[in-house]
Sequence to fold (130 residues):
Amino acid sequence: MMTDPIADMLTRIRNAITIRAEKVDIPASKLKLEIVKILKEEGFIKAYKILKDDKQGILRITLKYVDGNNVVSGLKRISKPGRRVYVNSKKIPMVMGGIGIAVMTTHKGVASDSTCRREGVGGEILCYVW
Fold:
């Protein structure tokens, strides 16, 4: 049994980038889909799609490379099952001086740090991407 599926997803993406894979398959869930949508909107991945199977489905992510270099240079899980990290709207961190993003869950759904600042909402910081 997996205790932290978000950390597993980030590790699979990190490993795929290390070997310069074009695509990576991840067991799907609603939360993972929302995180991947944000990564697509922010330009960190090229595309994603959901493949049906007999279980929960598979989320296939197409990674993005520019001039042979990967766009994602780092992924870090912040809030973990053993230690949740919450911030209010005034304390949302800037990731890598604004180059990266923080993915957060709020009462309005999953959003990037810039969206949370704009809407004035805080929440749980899931991960940093830069």
